[in-house]
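Hi everyone,

Forwarding the result from last night's run.
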Amino acid sequence: MNQYSMVVQWSDEDQLFLVTIPEFADRAIMPCTHGKTSSEAIRHGEEVIEMYLEAWQEEGAPIPAPSILQIV
């Protein structure tokens, strides 16, 4: 399981759940994937995260750090 954030939102216009990955927003097109159900969208989001991480690692590009939620 990865440690990156995913935002899953319903789109009335597309009639799909759209996925954005906040940590990748400045390096990838957002929303980055979608799904007909929230579960499908999350699964696709996890696949996209892995794809980007592998590509950036192969390119030697810097990999964004996951955001950390701190509750105080």
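The chain has a mean pLDDT of 94.

Cheers,
N.
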